[in-house]
TrEMBL record:
<dbReference type="GO" id="GO:0006226">
    <property type="term" value="P:dUMP biosynthetic process"/>
</dbReference>
<feature type="binding site">
    <location>
        <position position="166"/>
    </location>
    <ligand>
        <name>dCTP</name>
    </ligand>
</feature>
<feature type="binding site">
    <location>
        <position position="176"/>
    </location>
    <ligand>
        <name>dCTP</name>
    </ligand>
</feature>
<dbReference type="InterPro" id="IPR033704">
    <property type="entry name" value="dUTPase_trimeric"/>
</dbReference>
<feature type="binding site">
    <location>
        <position position="172"/>
    </location>
    <ligand>
        <name>dCTP</name>
    </ligand>
</feature>
<keyword id="KW-0378">Hydrolase</keyword>
<comment type="subunit">
    <text>Homotrimer.</text>
</comment>
<dbReference type="GO" id="GO:0008829">
    <property type="term" value="F:dCTP deaminase activity"/>
</dbReference>
<dbReference type="Pfam" id="PF22769">
    <property type="entry name" value="DCD"/>
</dbReference>
<dbReference type="GO" id="GO:0015949">
    <property type="term" value="P:nucleobase-containing small molecule interconversion"/>
</dbReference>
<feature type="binding site">
    <location>
        <position position="153"/>
    </location>
    <ligand>
        <name>dCTP</name>
    </ligand>
</feature>
<feature type="binding site">
    <location>
        <begin position="108"/>
        <end position="113"/>
    </location>
    <ligand>
        <name>dCTP</name>
    </ligand>
</feature>
<dbReference type="GO" id="GO:0006229">
    <property type="term" value="P:dUTP biosynthetic process"/>
</dbReference>
<feature type="active site" description="Proton donor/acceptor">
    <location>
        <position position="134"/>
    </location>
</feature>
<dbReference type="InterPro" id="IPR036157">
    <property type="entry name" value="dUTPase-like_sf"/>
</dbReference>
<comment type="pathway">
    <text>Pyrimidine metabolism; dUMP biosynthesis; dUMP from dCTP (dUTP route): step 1/2.</text>
</comment>
<protein>
    <recommendedName>
        <fullName>dCTP deaminase</fullName>
        <ecNumber>3.5.4.13</ecNumber>
    </recommendedName>
</protein>
Length: 184
């Protein structure tokens, strides 16, 4: 079953599923964030790692990504993603996924309609941490992403608890608090 706004709010406030939790959708002059009918629009923090091709990487290898290719930057307002490139960022919200809930992160249509794509990723039962967000610019021009505003929606689905949760298997991204690069 997909959780509705009442169920999400109850789990967020009683079980710390989302922290900080915004109990309504904020939309005034910002890319929306907060609680919606059947999901939660998370925000992107103000720190980014911008992919910058250089002499250190002739191939992008998820098993051996040279972190020198991802330049750290912070901003008060926005980041410009170079054409046909991407940035890594993190959510403002810290998520603690209950053992019987799976979250699916989906990009917001406001950005998708501008050629800015957020990678779809699961938040597995038992996982907790800040979400590392991959934001791609599929256009031939620089693309603007606003810090401290909405970036993606999380849809929560409840089911029977799995026999082995992400926490049980000691997943490699458990308790991540910053922008986390790929791990094996």
């Amino acid at each position: 079953m997909v959780l509705n706004d009442t169920q999400i709010a109850e789990r967020a406030t009683t079980h710390d599923m989302i922290d900080p939790f915004v109990d309504r959708q904020v939309r005034d002059d910002v890319v929306s964030y907060g609680l919606s009918s059947f999901g939660y629009d998370m925000r992107v923090a103000d720190a980014f790692r911008v992919f910058t091709p250089n002499m250190f990487n002739s191939v992008v290898d998820p098993k051996d990504l040279d972190d020198r290719a991802l330049v750290e930057t912070t901003t008060d307002d926005h980041i410009l993603i170079p054409p046909n490139s991407y940035v890594l960022a993190r959510s403002i919200e810290y998520f603690k996924m209950p053992r019987d809930v799976l979250g699916i992160v989906l990009g917001k249509s406001t950005y998708a309609r501008s050629g800015i794509i957020v990678n779809v990723t699961p938040l597995e039962p038992g996982w907790e941490g800040h979400v590392t967000i991959e934001i791609g610019n599929g256009t031939p021009l620089p693309a603007k992403v606003y810090a401290n505003e909405g970036i993606a929606q999380v849809v929560f689905m409840q089911g029977d608890p799995p026999s082995i949760s992400y926490a049980d298997k000691k997943g490699k991204y458990q308790h991540q608090t910053g922008i986390t690069l790929p791990r094996l």
